[in-house]
Amino acid sequence: MKTEIHCAIDMTKVFIAIENGKGGVGKSTLAQLLIEYLQFRMAMPFVIQVDVQARLAELNNFEVSTVASSPELVRADPSQQLSRFAVITDKAELGGMSGRPVVVDIGANEDQNFAYWAQQCELDADLNEFGLHPVVFVVFTAEQEAIEKALEAVESVGRALPSAHVVLVENQRFGAIGQLHPASSAHRAYAERLVPAASTTSYITMPKIPANSYARFEPHRLSFSRVVQMLPAEITEITGLPRADAKICRGDVAFFLATMFEQFDQIFGGGNA
Asked: Which of 165, 139, 135 is CA-nearest to residue 152?
């Protein structure tokens, strides 16, 4: 299932959410790629991260709003579950007024909380009033749990944001869906449940970076775009790689970034803001 739907969405009037209830599937990586893509297309986003981590704040030189992820607090006082998401509506209203997109990275185990809140506060109606089109990226890997959690996210999006366009993102970091044995539980979950439930979505892939080259830069909190712009001498200084290997690593990251940007262009109508 690899459907390319050209939405032709004005990216200055878009509300983007990235979801999957399972951790470690690449949600924050995709969020960062979308942030860099929007900046490349001259659309400076408001960014909100619903997570205990602050990865997006560390990678970007602008304010990233954080929604505290505290399941214990939510169980102790359910009203906190609703109030902590209020910043999302605030940023969406600002985005609609200022012509800036909004990106929300929803951490592990938070997608259902977000969906419940969105239903309760009628977020879909607010986004329509603000002039923002919701686009939800559901990221998954070739693992049964990740696929099942992706299905849950697709279903919850349908209830909470009925006007949203859903984009399935197959993260191939640990292998591709096409490489799974047809009799495996993961492949069956994908073919029998996720594909039918997401028959009208867009579908893109997030390929594995050759030789895991970005791993050499991630500890230094360098964005993908920053790595691509670095001189070989700079890369050598922080990684200890020889000049030739430094250029190869930079090339691997550049190819990955270009591949993702090309796919985002398909989702956003060729990058025409």
From this structure: 139
Amino acid identity for residue 116 in this structure: Y
pTM (two decimals): 0.92
Rounded-to-integer distance, Cα 58 and Cα 54, Å: 6
How far, in Å, CA of 226 to CA of 234, rounded?
11
What 8-state DSSP symbol labels residue 54? -
Q: Nearest 5°: phi and psi at 50?
A: -95, 90
**Nearest in space to 270 (alpha carbons), one of 7, 23, 1:** 7
Q: How many Å apart are CA 49 and CA 65, to the nearest integer?
A: 6
pLDDT tens-digit readout, 67-84: 877 656 555 665 666 788
Residue 226's pLDDT is what?
A: 96
CB 209 within 8 A of CB 256: yes
Between CA 113 and CA 206 the distance in angstroms is: 26
Asked if 13 contacts 99 with a C-beta cutoff of 8 angstroms, the reply is yes
What is the structure's pLDDT at 82? 72
